[in-house]
Amino acid sequence: MALPGGHHLDSVTLPGQRLHLMQVDSVQRWMEDLKLMTECECMCVLQAKPISLEEDAQGDLILAGGPGPGDPLQLLLKRGWVISTELRRIGQKLAQDRWARVHSMSVRLTCHARSMVSEYSAVSRNSSKEMGQIEKLLMEKCSELSAVTERCLQVENEHVLKSMKACVSETLSMLGQHFGQLLELALTREVQTESCSVTELECSGGISAYCNLCLLGSSNSPVSASQALVRKIDASDNIYTTESTTGNLFSLTQEGAPLCRIIAKEGGVVALFKICRQDTFRCLYPQALRTLASICCVEEGVHQLEKVDGVLCLADILTDDSHSEATRAEAAAVVAQVTSPHLPVTQHLSSFMESMEEIVTALVKLCQEASSGEVFLLASAALANITFFDTMACEMLLQLNAIRVLLEACSDKQRVDTPYTRDQIVTILANMSVLEQCASDIIQENGVQLIMGMLSEKPRSGTPAEVAACERVQQKAAVTLARLSRDPDVAREAVRLSCMSRLIKLCRSPSERNSSDAVLVACLAALRRLAGVCPEGLQDSDFQQLVQPRLVDSFLLCSNMEESFV
């Protein structure tokens, strides 16, 4: 195999690095790369498995350039990224029942896992009994996955394959758990033992070079930097140094949940709240709060926030009009994060209950005065999560005339111009609609007409995220309508505005709801509630198919319905 060019690669400038020159022996580099490129293929041949010729095989992962000698952090991050991507791809092929592909990828996954374990053990000084046990469990699950997928290749009975598919899925899930435990334990140990010069890291651009865990040659690691960055923030009284270091810490939080957990454990939350409690650092509040919101995506971050009375600090910022709108918006983002219904730990935030009234009042005011869609989105997202957090919040919102504030905002394109924002608004309305007093406020503010409009929510760009947001808006609008229609006045107003015909169209036309089953169920429930009050608004065929049968029968009828293009 001939390599283009001469024998040496002289003074090549790497992108993203300032005048960072390196001398590389091309033959030596090729030999290092060759080991990683051929390792998996060799293992496939040794196990008598042919290399796949499928069209998507060209997307198989190859590590370009191995970690440097004695650099366990780069090794962990590179191998970790490859293995996690392989796990995701195996799951995709499993869902498509492409068993040959699942098996070949399982073999390759085993190779990557074995390489990570052996290479890390060779360069790391931090081996322990606990790590050894997890490594053993990981490799056992890898072998089990390879064995069971090989058996699946020999099975032709569909019923047997279906039962084996559940077994493969469970094995894959357990393998992912063991891998996550091993990676997090190894990363944490490296953070605890390695020291790193933050000044060197900042000058070399090492943090930005780790986007997607791809290294551009820097010898510094953001994982080993987290402890040093936290200490530097905690000790610094210089505004420029603190700003730079906080920005670098934020960059680390964008590398994923494992690093956020490590930053939280190393005191990142404490150090950032220290900034937010000093008037001399007021101009840094937005940046510090943005970093806090990223860290609090994990339970460890929320626990640390609770320990340092972080909720009280957030309440002080939100209720202080002397703070800029940007600062209060970022504080709202932290509130939205720590009250997320997806984090089970948020239900135990005892300190939040003490400050909830102040926070809710400040958030409603921020929604009312928001100068941009982004600020309104952050404030409304926090309110939406709080309505899940405690039902008392809905009563507070009712007393604060929040319905009027939210519905007025819907007609302001500067504040509400995306389905993501309407998703937050309709979430609040859906949760508030359990209160009997809510119905009169909705009618008074022409809320039924706005809810009717949300049933027609359509994506502009067609991206998966926007399509999913539109589905949530339609579903929650139907849920809100069903709950409010307990009040006869609301039901009659909905019928007058032709809500029933829109609900029928959503049920009968899959394209109107993007074939979403969740939207279908919500629309059937709303339609039945309205039909109970105003049955004359339905045609006989609609009544017999969508209202009279059991809900599950109507659901099956509509979910299997093919559209007519005649």
From TrEMBL:
Q: What residues does the Protein inscuteable homologue LGN-binding domain cover?
A: 22-68
Under the heading Pfam families, the entry gives:
Insc_C (PF19427), INSC_LBD (PF16748)
One of its GO biological process terms is: regulation of asymmetric cell division
What are the residue boundaries of the Protein inscuteable homologue C-terminal domain, all occurrences included? Answer: 79-194, 227-566
Family matches, as SUPFAM superfamilies: ARM repeat
Listed GO CC annotations? apical cortex
Name the InterPro entries for this protein: ARM-like (IPR011989), ARM-type_fold (IPR016024), Armadillo (IPR000225), Insc_C (IPR045789), INSC_LBD (IPR031938), INSC_LBD_sf (IPR038205), Inscuteable (IPR039921)
> Molecular function (GO) terms listed?
cytoskeletal anchor activity
Stretches assigned to coiled coil = none
This one is known as INSC spindle orientation adaptor protein
- From what organism does this protein derive? Macaca nemestrina (Pig-tailed macaque)
Q: Gene encoding it?
A: INSC
